[in-house]
Write a structure and sequence with these properties.
alpha/beta; Rossmann fold; L-2-Hydroxyisocaproate Dehydrogenase, Chain A, domain 2; 2 domains; 9-stranded mixed beta sheet; 3-stranded antiparallel beta sheet; binds (2S)-2-hydroxybutanedioic acid
Length: 336
C-alpha cells in the first residue's frame, strides 16, 4: 500500500491503443498524477489489439520502472469486457491514424465499427457514471457511434476532443500578437475536428482585450489563422511523417482537467452532444464552448455572440458532421 492509497479510492481509467504513440505519451502523465491530481490514486486498464500486446508489455515495464506512487493497479488486455470493467473514465485513443493525403473522414469506414464494439462493452461493463473521451479519428462521429452503442449510459457522458485545436489556435494567436500563450483566453473551437472547424477569434481575448483589437489584420485572421488551425494535424503529419502524439496526449490531459475541475474565468472547447444550442443540429457531437460548475456538471456557455461570418462557418462544419453521421450510420446499420 502506498502513502496515497488510503486517502482516496482509485479512479479506474481505461485507455485504448495503450501501446500506440499517443498512449505512450499519455500513460505516464496519468500515472504521475497530472490528469487527476497529485493525491488521486489511479488504476490503469490498458487495452490493445492482439498485435499490440507485446509492445504493451514493454510499456508496462516502463510504467513500473517509474515507481509512480499513485498507481494502484495495472490491467493489460485485448478483451473489452475486462478492459472496460468498472472504469470511471474510458479514453478511446486507439484507432488507425490517417496517413499523408488522407482526411480524417476517410477513416470512417476503417474505424467506425471499432467504436460500436467499444460502446457496447462500455455500456455493459463500465460504471454507469463512466465518462468517455474519444480521440481516435474522425473523433466526433466515432464518439457518436460509441454513444449510440451504449444506450444505458447518459449521452452527456460522451465527449470528443477539440482541446488540441483550441491549444493550437491559442498558440497561433499568441505568436502573432507576440505575447505568452497564457494571455490568450476564451478561444472556443466550434464544429467538427476537421479542416472545417471554426476557431472563434472574434470572441477570443488577448491580455483581456478583444483579440481582434490586438490583431487588427482581419485578412490574416480569416485567411491564414483559421485554415492554419484547421490544417495543423495535416502539417504535422507532413513534417513528422506521423500524426501528432505528444500534443494530442497533452490535450487529453487538458480535456479531462477541463471536465473535472470547476472552470475559472475561461471557456473550453469540448465536443459534446448538442441539444440545439446556437442552432447546432440536436443529437450530433459537436465542439461547443463549455464551463463546468462547482458540482462537476458541464454546460454549454450561453450568450456568446456569433457574427454572420462565424455562424456560417459553424453551420458548414456541422453540416459536415450530419453528412459523416449519414455515411457512418448507413455503413454500420445504426439509426439516428
Ligand atoms: C490531429 O489533429 O493532429 C489529429 O487529429 C491527427 C490527424 O489526423 O490530424
Amino acid at each position: 500500500m502506498n502513502r496515497f492509497s488510503s486517502a482516496k479510492s482509485p479512479i479506474r481509467v481505461a485507455v485504448t491503443g495503450a501501446a500506440g504513440n499517443i498512449g505512450y505519451a499519455l500513460l505516464f502523465r496519468i500515472a504521475s498524477g497530472q490528469m487527476f491530481g497529485p493525491d488521486q490514486p489511479v488504476a490503469l486498464n490498458l487495452i490493445e489489439i492482439e498485435p499490440g500486446m507485446k509492445p504493451l508489455e514493454g510499456v508496462v515495464m516502463e510504467l513500473k520502472d517509474c515507481a509512480f506512487p499513485l498507481v494502484t493497479d495495472i490491467v493489460t488486455t485485448s478483451d473489452l469486457s475486462v478492459g472496460f470493467k468498472d472504469v470511471d473514465w474510458a479514453l478511446l485513443v486507439g484507432s488507425v491514424p490517417r496517413k499523408k493525403g488522407m482526411e480524417r473522414a476517410d477513416l470512417l469506414g476503417i474505424n467506425g465499427k471499432v467504436f460500436v464494439g467499444q460502446g457496447q462493452a462500455i455500456n455493459d461493463y463500465a460504471k454507469p457514471s463512466v465518462r468517455v473521451l474519444v480521440v481516435g479519428n474522425p473523433c466526433n462521429t466515432n464518439a457518436l457511434i460509441a454513444m449510440k452503442s451504449a444506450p444505458d449510459i447518459p449521452d452527456t457522458q460522451f465527449f470528443a476532443m477539440t482541446r488540441l485545436d483550441e491549444n493550437r489556435a491559442k498558440s497561433q494567436l499568441a505568436d502573432k500578437a507576440g505575447v505568452p500563450v497564457g494571455q490568450v483566453t476564451e478561444l472556443c473551437v466550434w464544429g467538427n475536428h476537421s479542416p472545417s472547424m471554426y476557431p472563434d477569434f472574434e470572441n477570443a481575448k488577448i491580455s483581456r482585450q478583444k483579440a481582434t483589437s490586438v490583431i487588427s489584420d482581419e485578412a490574416w485572421l480569416r485567411d491564414t489563422f483559421v485554415p492554419t488551425v484547421g490544417q495543423r494535424g495535416k502539417a504535422i503529419i507532413e513534417a513528422r511523417g506521423a500524426s501528432s502524439a505528444a500534443s494530442a496526449a497533452n490535450a487529453v490531459v487538458d480535456t479531462v482537467q477541463d471536465l473535472i475541475k470547476p472552470t475559472r474565468g475561461d471557456i473550453h472547447s469540448v465536443c459534446v452532444v448538442s441539444s440545439g444550442q446556437y442552432g447546432t443540429p440536436a443529437g450530433i457531437i459537436t465542439s461547443l464552448p463549455i464551463r463546468v460548475d462547482g458540482a462537476g456538471k458541464w454546460r454549454v456557455v450561453d450568450g456568446i455572440k456569433l457574427s454572420d461570418y462565424a455562424k456560417s462557418k459553424v453551420a458548414a462544419s456541422n453540416e459536415e458532421l450530419l453528412e459523416e453521421r449519414k455515411v457512418a450510420f448507413g455503413q454500420l446499420g445504426l439509426s439516428f
